Amino acid sequence: MTSPVPIAAARGLCSCHVCQFVSRRAQGAQVAHCPRCGARLHFRKPGSVQRCWALVIASYILYIPANALVMMETGSLISYRKDTIVSGVVHLWKTGSWMIAVIVFIASVAIPLLKLFSLTLLLISVQRRSTWNPRQRTRLYRLVEAVGRWSMLDIYVVTLLAALVQLGSMATVKAGPAAVAFGAVVVLTMFATMEFDPRLIWDPLQKEEFHD
């Protein structure tokens, strides 16, 4: 277990959530404001865990229609297809586009699910005040934060195809209802990552408690 190290909050130092300016705040003070931008100061984001849980649960719920409903509809004079994310991956694989199929599967199925599992693990460990591998959990949080935007690959693909492949009555490409749910999952997980306060990972290693 990592040995306790004095943290900034123990010295009365608080980072502004708006301008990131670090200033001194008395721990017993009821209300304090940033001397630079005037925003209210908190040692930790108030309600961070509760809001993050709400966003993660909403993401789990929307993840089901995002994968069960039609993501993209493609039609021509010869054929008409309706594909979910998974059926689209299978179709790409069977038609020989293995590399594209793997990329779409990783970006649109694996990454969103792994993000949800990672956020769930972080939330549970924080609520249980776990001291297990804080460095690794902090790196996990940074990884989730970094890869979040790349989960929009399917939406980008559908948008580009709809713009480039429209040939009047000869061919059509349009987004299905799953696109809305999938986009909502990506956005909600990004908001959940923003709401999570990674400093909570390190608090169990300290003797002091920091609340507003």
UniProtKB/TrEMBL annotation:
<feature type="transmembrane region" description="Helical">
    <location>
        <begin position="98"/>
        <end position="126"/>
    </location>
</feature>
<feature type="transmembrane region" description="Helical">
    <location>
        <begin position="147"/>
        <end position="169"/>
    </location>
</feature>
<feature type="transmembrane region" description="Helical">
    <location>
        <begin position="175"/>
        <end position="194"/>
    </location>
</feature>
<dbReference type="InterPro" id="IPR051800">
    <property type="entry name" value="PqiA-PqiB_transport"/>
</dbReference>
<keyword id="KW-0472">Membrane</keyword>
<keyword id="KW-0997">Cell inner membrane</keyword>
<dbReference type="InterPro" id="IPR007498">
    <property type="entry name" value="PqiA-like"/>
</dbReference>
<keyword id="KW-0812">Transmembrane</keyword>
<keyword id="KW-1133">Transmembrane helix</keyword>
<dbReference type="GO" id="GO:0005886">
    <property type="term" value="C:plasma membrane"/>
</dbReference>
<dbReference type="Pfam" id="PF04403">
    <property type="entry name" value="PqiA"/>
</dbReference>
<feature type="transmembrane region" description="Helical">
    <location>
        <begin position="52"/>
        <end position="78"/>
    </location>
</feature>
<keyword id="KW-1003">Cell membrane</keyword>
<protein>
    <submittedName>
        <fullName>Paraquat-inducible protein</fullName>
    </submittedName>
</protein>
